[in-house]
Structure formats: C-alpha cells, structure tokens
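Aim 2, interim progress. The first record below pairs a target sequence with its structure tokens.
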Amino acid sequence: MQEKVQIKKVSPEEVAEVRKKLPCGYGKIIADMVSGQYKPITINHMVRGYRSMKPVVYKAANKLIETINNLKNTITNENSK
C-alpha cells in the first residue's frame, strides 16, 4: 500500500517575504527554473496571492533570491578592493 506524502503548504507570510525580495521579470525566470511546469503569469499570480503557491515554485523563488544576493555580494566585494 502506498503512503501519502505530506506536502507542506506555503504560508501567506512566506509568500509575502518572497514577494518583497523578487525583482521585476521574476515570472519568466522562475518558469524556466521549474522547467515550464507553470506559465509566468501563473507564477505571478502565486506570488501576488491570487493562487496558492506551490512548493516547487517557492523553492525556485528562494533559489533565485539567493542567487541575486550572492551576485550582489560578489559585486560589492569586488568594488571594495
């Protein structure tokens, strides 16, 4: 018998935090990151709270935010030399 896998729902607070940190054009980038599983407009609606945020989109959004922060830190470090 198969066991049901519990998928953690993304809380509204987590969605709001992601929304604050994402740059313009994030829908297309995240759609590419999730291999076109969702269209950019659907991802925009998830981030804006019109649709439920899927865990795969939430993970991709956090990865994008992390990548942007790492890039900013790298540029800042190189400029300070």
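The second target in this work package is listed in the same format:
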Amino acid sequence: MNDPLATTAKVFKRVTLDDIYSAIDEVKTRQEESSRYLNQRIDIIGQRVDNLGTRIDSLSAQLNQKIDSQIGQVRQEIGQLNQRFDTVMQMLMELNKQMVNINK
C-alpha cells in the first residue's frame, strides 16, 4: 500500500536535499577557489612589497653614500679655506709688523 502522494513527496524531498547538498558542495568549491586565488594575490602583493622595500633600502644606501661624499668634499673645502684664511692672517700680521717698524 504505497501512497502515490507520499512517494512523490519523498522523491521531491530527496531531489530537494540532493540539490541542497550539490549547491553546498558548489559553494564550498567556489569558496576554496576564491581563497586560493586571494592567497595567491596576497603572496604576489607581499613579494612586490618586499621588492619595493629592497629597492628603497638600496636607493637609501646610495643616497647616504652620496651625502657622505658631499659632506667629505665640503669639509675638505672648508679645510682649504681655513688654510687660506690662516695664510692671509699671517700675511696681515707681517704687514702690520712692517708698518709698525716703518712708523718707528
């Protein structure tokens, strides 16, 4: 004594559950694919950031070397100017001595 209505309800219930399970599996699969894709993108972006950091470090080191070189040159020029200044001061002191001797 099979009730055709009950059998039909069981078939619909079974089809509906199969559809739900299938949809859940599909969503899981898509979610896993999306996660893999996003993780790959994150890795690529991380690598790019690391490369930029390396590049910035390199440029910073080059800039520091140039600055140190420029500072060295300026110090050298200041030293040369100090020597010239000392020479001029000695010459002025000699001239002053000569002027004092002439005026005596």
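DSSP finds one helix and no strands in the chain. This observation will shape the mutagenesis plan for the next reporting period.
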